[in-house]
Amino acid sequence: MNLFPKYFFENIINIPNTLSFFRLLLSIPAFYFLQNLNTSPINRKLILVIIIIAYISDFLDGYIARKKNCITEFGKIIDPLADKLFIIIIAIQLYLQNEIVSIYFWIIFLRDLIIFLGGIYVSKKIGKVLPSNMLGKITVLTIGIFLFLTILGVNKIFWLYKVFFYLSTALSILSVIGYSLRAYETIKQVSK
Hints:
Blueprint: H1 15-35, H2 41-67, H3 73-96, H4 102-126, H5 134-152, H6 159-191
Helix pairs in contact: 1-2, 1-3, 3-4, 3-5, 4-6, 5-6
């Protein structure tokens, strides 16, 4: 069975997929400004603006895909891929600059790696992409808020910082468990 069946490449060019691709491209300036995060106060502000633009594009691509009924198999791949790449670039840079602790970085990194590789495996088994679920979306949102607070320079002992640190860490672990169970059940149903 092909990993990418013929229908996977149909209807690639649409507004939601274009927005996801735009978010992928936003990773480039995000990477640059994060590398130079502490060299100029303007860099911190620019990366915050880029994150807000990325969040708006993520919201819009999902909204338009559902509203206009243009959800595609390609979109089910590029949307979460854009999210994962964007978040992991931010996490790597913050980790390298000692802005986030190593345990947090590794939990986020391994979560994305496991879900990405698991997604490839499941797609090969069932012939289609297993879409994101609500737990995954909430997890990515809490990780994004935590990273945003970190870049904003919120004091690490402030309660809001701690809430999103522990919440996003717990949800990251739960989302991997949830995805694994859902993947197992889906493969089991298809195999019957």
